[in-house]
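for the writeup, i need someone to sanity check this before i put it in the appendix. the sequnce is what the collaborator sent (i think, or maybe the updated version? ugh). structure was predicted straight from it, no edits. if anything looks off just tell me and ill rerun, i have time this weekend
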Amino acid sequence: MASVRHFPGVSRRVAAACSSLVGRSAGLPTGCRGLWTSPTAPLRGPHATLCSAEKARAVPATTLPSNCCCCRCCLDGLAGATSGLRRRAVRGGTADSPTRLGVLSPNGCRQLLHSAASRTSKPFGMSPLSALASPLHGDSPGAWSPGGPKRRFTSAAQLVDKCPRGLQPYLKLARLDKPIGTWLLYWPCTWSIALGAGPGQLPDLRLLTLFGVGALLMRGAGCTINDLWDADIDGRVARTKQRPLAAGDLSKRQAVAALGVQLSAALTVLLQLNYFSIGLGALALLPVTAYPLMKRVTNWPQAVLGLTFNWGALLGWAAVHGSIDPLGVTLPLYLSGISWTLFYDTIYAHQDKRDDALLGLGSTALRLGDGPSGVRWLAGFGGVTTASLLLCGVNMWGGGGMNSALLDIDAAAQALSSAWPYFACVMGGGAHLAWQLRRVDLKDGASCMRMFVSNRWFGAVVFAGIVAGNLAAG
């Protein structure tokens, strides 16, 4: 009978849980230190087998059992949920590994984990791969916890998995299983709608609903366009190889048909707005279509994504007022969204920088790097985001209009006194960006994903601040 050996920093409960998950006498050790295949099996580090994805950054050989192999996808997919887990090793073979003790590919590891999770409800009550997220963009990591409390809610990924099997590839094509991208697209829309309501007024619930539906549809359409452009690339990137087109679950013709349905539904939503907003919304198709190509021609595709993802900052105001005037309010709001996108999507892009470099693709993660210079750039993006939101607020409630209100002390004082909750929330949001920068490890994909997903709270804080500021100013 196999045993699980406990090492410092590795929970006995987690080690036992990993072993029982696989349902064999030997299974899934923790930290590349946990599992022996028999009570007397020694650690033979020099003979440990590492998968090819891990060879370039192999951990010390003495930390691996000789009859285990280390799979990189376990690190990316599982460590995001439990910070203490940094590696996994899997004994056995699948169709992806030629021998019983051969190297298990990332896809084989996923299959094994999925099948194991479906056979047992304890200690894992959900898919272990909920942390494998994707942009425009990924799902929330940390939705499961080894040996932790049971889930209290149903994730979007679980809801998609419960849908008819033939429908699931279409839902995944639109990233309905990964709602973080929809939130990041929706928040700038809510900011402008709430600002447009004016002092003493709540935002228009009808517009918030229409823009919520529109964000869901256009995010799905954007992801479909992205996958159509990148079908030949996604299959060679570990994080994207399971997307419906890359995995062969859908044909390009089926994806184009799905895109037509999404755009038609989005057009129906757009036609509920005024004429100026309809024209402005139609223009958004240009950056939406161009964005997937930018990684082939520039190291700054995230800037184009910022132009695209924050179009709602202009469109929401236009839906309320029929124009984007005064520019002293709308342009700083738009700039803040662009800078925010550069901040969170650069962090996100660090997950793919190795694959992007091999494929000759550009990104701000590669351009700026993960050293001190890259961190300074991220701090700059966060600073511009916060400063632009402050300027927007001063112009909104201080009467600055087109003037440089940061130099107008009277306008700033008037805005601060009348809409102080907004400025408090913006500063709180800025502190959240600083917290992300302090916590993120740009060399760790799981850490990048956790910080990326946390940006939904930044958007929520700013929205709450705008609503509270308007009420206070009324």
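The beta strands are 3-4, 35-36, 49-50, 69-70, 89-90. The mean pLDDT is 74.
thx in advance!!
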